Each structure stands twice: as C-alpha cells, then as structure tokens.
C-alpha cells in the first residue's frame, strides 16, 4: 500500500474562494478522500469533483487492498497511523471502501477537522467512531442512503410483478387503488411513497422510531405492525436489520397476511424467519418477491426456488451505475453546506447509531 499523504494523489486546486465554514478566514479549505483505487475511478464523477475543487483543495490517500464492504475494516495499526497522518491539516475527511476506521487516534491528529463523511458501505458497520467524533466536536455525515433511489425503484417493480403474478395467468391484479403496507420508514420508504403516489394507493406504515409528524407531511398513516400485515394488499419490508428487528416477521406475523397479499423484501433477509416464510409460502395463497435472503445467496437446491408463487432476485436492488456516483454527489452537497456555514443534512448521530445497534427505545432517547 502506498503511503497516504498530501502527495499520495494529486492535490487538485480550484479557483480561490473565501470559505464560509470551517477553514480559517483567507484559507482555502482542504478535503481529503481516503479510499481504494476502484472508488476513486468509479465513484468520483468529474462534475462532482469540479464542484468540490471549486471550493476546496482535494487530496487523495490510496488505501487499495483493505476493501471491506460487509463489515467494519479490521483493526490495522499501521493503516490507522497512515490515516491519522493524512488527516492532519484537513477540514473535511471522506472515507470509503479500503479506508481504515476513523478512530480517536485519527481525530486527535486532526485538530482542524470539522467533518468526517462515510461515502458508501454497510450502514451498520460504519467506518467512523461516532462517539469519539462527538467528543472532538466533529460532525459525521453518512451518505450511504444514496442507494435508496434504485432500491425504491426495484421495490416498486417487485410490487407490480407480484400483483401481476408474473409467470402465471390466472391471478392478475393492479397496484392502482390498493392498500400498501411499509415496514420501516427511512430513506427508501420516503422515496417509495413518492413513486407509488400516482397509483392512488393508501399507505400504512409501521416504524416505532419514526417521528409522527412525518405521517401528515408524506400523506401516510402510521399503524401497528399487525394492522400493516393484515390490512394491506402488498407489504414491503424496508426495516434495517438490527438486534431488535432480526426475526421480526415469524410464523405468527406471516400468518396475518391475507390470501392474495404480495410480500416484498428489499431490506435484509434475516428480518424474516426463513423457515416460517417457507411454510407460509407453501400454502400458495400469497406471493413473495424477494431481493434479500437468509441465507444469502440462496442455495441452489433450496425449496423456495421451485415455488411458483415466489420471484427471487440476487440482492441487486441497490446496484446501479448511477448509485455509485450518487454517493459522492451527495457528499459534495454536504461539504458545500459545511463550508457555507450551514449544518449538513445526513448527520450520523449517537441516536442514529443507537437505533442501528438496537439499543434505542422506540420513540425515545437511547
């Protein structure tokens, strides 16, 4: 691995500009991007880079070889030291695949750091020590929700596929005018609500952590989980996988689905009890359209593959060309807000981390 420093990638300079945020008056802010070669090549679109270099100098640190997508980067003292060295003198640090975890040691080495942003990765195995960042007064921004756009699109596609019962001709119904149930109400759900609005559907939502005022703002109705499962024509699972949601939908819950219901899962397979789901699907009176599975990938000889009322896709809902560059585009917007002196929108707070870790009480403080 090359030594990450101010020269481990080109320093890209834009036009001089008086920053309005974290940098000292008269000093151009400096943004560091720590990632592997694939991220630098495929995630950083020229237009977004141009926007960033117009307001800041940009430095790169190459951490190729440490890619970790589904888990926290493994502890590596040498890489941590290199990231700490790179972070010194930065006003904002962006990390992505390849970069080691932003620890207290890294934060201590960068007294001028105002923001750390995680570009993309597993939202529940973050690359930033949020507690340490909070102690150092460093904002943490998470733009991993950039994939919510294609996931919402695919959820809609699966809803329509299920209603039309693609592959069979006897039971075909429309989505128009139906009742839609959403389990979980985060970024994906918000976008899905916008996508289904033209269909004239009624939307019921179960999410014990979501602010109640969102119901009126987005035109949905919050309801208990049982009501969402039993009282809608299509149920979409969008909840994050946490200790509280693992196995959330078991035999009792799946038994509440009325005959003819379409069940869609684009979140995580382990939220649903796989044995109970298979038993419910064997009855043949509901349709399941699943992008996520437990285990994953689905074994070649798994019974669920042969069921005529099941449509499977291989966890591809969030995988698009556009979603890769969107992560960085959203991050540039957050950095622009920072340097204008306004608060970034996608803040990763202790409360959010507590919810992801299953430690927060629904509707209350962690």
Automatic annotation (TrEMBL):
UniProt entry tagged with the keyword rRNA-binding: no
Keyword check for Oxidoreductase: yes
Highest taxon above the source species: Bacteria
Pfam families in the record: 2-Hacid_dh, 2-Hacid_dh_C
Residue span(s) of domain D-isomer specific 2-hydroxyacid dehydrogenase NAD-binding: 170-317
Positions of region (Disordered): 1-29
GO molecular function annotations of the record: NAD binding; oxidoreductase activity, acting on the CH-OH group of donors, NAD or NADP as acceptor
Keyword line: NAD, Oxidoreductase
Gene3D superfamilies: NAD(P)-binding Rossmann-like Domain
Domain D-isomer specific 2-hydroxyacid dehydrogenase catalytic: 77-345
Similarity comment: Belongs to the D-isomer specific 2-hydroxyacid dehydrogenase family.
PANTHER family assigned: D-ISOMER SPECIFIC 2-HYDROXYACID DEHYDROGENASE FAMILY PROTEIN (AFU_ORTHOLOGUE AFUA_6G10090)
Protein's recorded name: Phosphoglycerate dehydrogenase-like enzyme
Protein species of origin: Actinopolymorpha pittospori
